[in-house]
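Field notebook, page 337. I keep forgetting to write these up properly, so this time I am using the form the group agreed on. The chain and the ligand, S-adenosylmethionine, are recorded exactly as supplied. Prediction of the bound pose follows.
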Amino acid sequence: MQSRRSKSITGKRKQVGNSVARVIKPQKTRKIIRRFHHLINKRESICQFLCLTEGLDEANEKKNDTIILASTKGNANLSKYYEDGKSQAFNEVMEAQLLKLHSLVNNETNSKEACDLATMYTLLGYIMNQIDALGGLETYQIASQNGQLKGRGGDTSKLLEKWTRPLLGNRSGAIALEIGSLSSENRISQCGLFREVVRIDLQNHEGVAKQDFMERPLPESENDRFDLISCSLVLNFVKNHKDRGAMCHRMIEFLKPQGYIFIVLPQACVAHSRYCNESLLQKLFASIGLILLNSHQSDKLYYCLYQLQKAPSQLKGFSKRVKINDGPGLNNFGITL
Ligand SMILES: C[S@@+](CC[C@H](N)C(=O)[O-])C[C@H]1O[C@@H](n2cnc3c(N)ncnc32)[C@H](O)[C@@H]1O
């Protein structure tokens, strides 16, 4: 029988599995999700600064720890700074440093000198410990799941049903793929529009297959393709702009001609990003053959429905992130193709 307690990367014992779900109060879920995103984004910025983006994996913090340690390349000082950061509990000094990280990593005169590296590795250690203290990806997913509970208005596929019923209502036998699925109880699975909904996620959940979409074998025939792909709050979860682009390309491979993609992002990804807004997103998707049918922005989320048309023969202008907004308080969300 699997133990309900496991060791964290810092060696502390922590609870895993359903026991965590019991201790996350609904009013805390948003806070947890925001904190998780904050930490992951800051870690991404530091890793980019250190040219260390390769291989970090939100689903495996132990592996991340090993990768970061390996990047110190036996430099005892750097690994000491990293361990030093890990040993620090939540504190205002480190939080303030995280908040001004943007100016540190974007300072043109900042060469990767010893003092920068010391700060960065200490912050990395601190972030790792904070993610660990939060319970890592598992707690985040449980918080997201709680956020979806019926009656709390959290199931984004309610809008998917509303938008696609007029399009798919008469089509019998439609099949859907839900990437990042946390439950078989969501509207996408219950609305009756689909003969089958294939649900996948990086982690195990009841009624959901554990699979990394990026490793799902490519379709060999039309039967392996989908009428609709749902990608709700997943792209923002993917660690960098290139990998998000790769996921978008891959979704196209899995769509039937004229198939639909339903995408949900935190509203901040289109409203408060240096590298993304709704119009850029629309152009970027158009370059891979996706035409916008519907969109909606709530206080917290941005929803959109695209349909696959014929892709233009050449991909143009989306291989690099271009700054379209500037100012304090913006995030670095972006997608490149
Ligand atoms: C915030 S949850 C979103 C849950 C749900 N779809 C929703 O709308 O609330 C993001 C989920 O995306 C999943 N995810 C991220 N990358 C993935 C990938 N490559 N393949 C499968 N699932 C992935 C994560 O495991 C995580 O559970």
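OBSERVATIONS:
- The pocket of S-adenosylmethionine is lined by residues 141, 144, 148, 156, 179-180, 182, 200-203, 212-214, 232-234, 237-238, 264 (CB under 6 Å).
- The chain has two domains: 5-146, 151-308.
FOLLOW-UP: compare against the apo run.
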